[in-house]
Amino acid sequence: MRKILVANPKGGCGKSTIAVHLASWFAMNDEVVYLGDLDRQQSSRLWLEMRSAEQVAIRHWDPTEDLVAPPRDCSVAIYDTPAGLHGKRLKQLLGEVERVIVPVSPSRFDMLASRDFFDELAEAKAIRKERVGVGIIGMRVDARANSTRELVEFLEQFELPLLTCLRSTQRYVRALESGVTLFESHEAAAAIDRLQWQPLLEWLVTRRSA
After folding, report:
1. For the chain, which ranges sit under pLDDT 50?
2. In 3D, which of 2, 18, 3 has the Cα closest to residue 136?
3. Closest by alpha carbon to 24, among 206, 10, 93, 16?
4. Nearest-CA neighbor of 18 among 209, 210, 196?
5. Could you give the CA distance from residue 190 to residue 149 in angstroms, rounded to a whole number?
6. Helix (H) and strand (E) counts in the chain
7. Helix, strand, or coil here: 27?
8. CB under 8 Å, gap of 24 or more: what pairs does 88-91 form?
9. Is 75 in contact with 35 (CB distance < 8 Å)?
């Protein structure tokens, strides 16, 4: 079973966008996918409710403090987490997963807001022992902007890999409002956006040796 945590203590950085797209991609590849929404806003769960019966099945479960693990028939579990995740709850979730994805926007404010979280991850036993891998996703990135270079330089001090960058486009908004993802979109123009996900997907399906 693959268990993937999408986390960043800052709100509005794209965690739910990442979570539902990963759930969709794995489901389209014949996995039994469960999406656990820990956020009070329940954006991922509400997105699930908008989906039609004709679309690939993605199941929901509620990861409470007493029952963090997904149901036994699950083959891929995605944890969509709230803003402010830290401390005991973060440690508990790190004990469950094998991958952590941190979406970060290339703005100075967002990078500074992520600093303490990266320090906390570095101190976590599961990560120090290399039982859990951490990867960063640049969100709403313009490859030509200086802020993108600043994001790369910022991450270097934490020795964290920037797996890929996703550009800012209204296609994400339109897809999610329709209960689908860009992986399910029939827009030919979305191909370039789907291609940007490939490094992340390859990282996720590569098993860790530790």
Report:
1. 209-210
2. 18
3. 16
4. 196
5. 25
6. 9, 7
7. helix
8. 89/65, 90/7, 90/120, 90/124, 91/124
9. no
Residue 3: predicted pLDDT: 96
Contacts with 50 (C-beta within 8 Å, 6 or more apart), sequence order: 177, 178, 179
- Provide the sign of the torsion angle of the four alpha carbons 149, 141, 90, 9, taken in this order: positive
Of 132, 151, 128, 29, nearest in space to 79 by CA: 132
% of the chain beyond a pLDDT of 70: 97
Please choose, from the candidates 161, 160, 80, 64, the residue with its C-alpha nearest in 3D space to the C-alpha of residue 120. 160
pLDDT reported for residue 206: 87
C-alpha–C-alpha distance, residues 93 and 28, integer Å: 26
Q: Residue 61 phi/psi, 5° resolution? A: -140, 160
The whole-angstrom distance between residue 131's C-alpha and the CA centroid of its chain comes to 18
All domains of the chain, ordered by start, with CATH? Answer: 2-84+101-205 (3.40.50.300)
Diameter of the chain measured on Cα atoms: 46
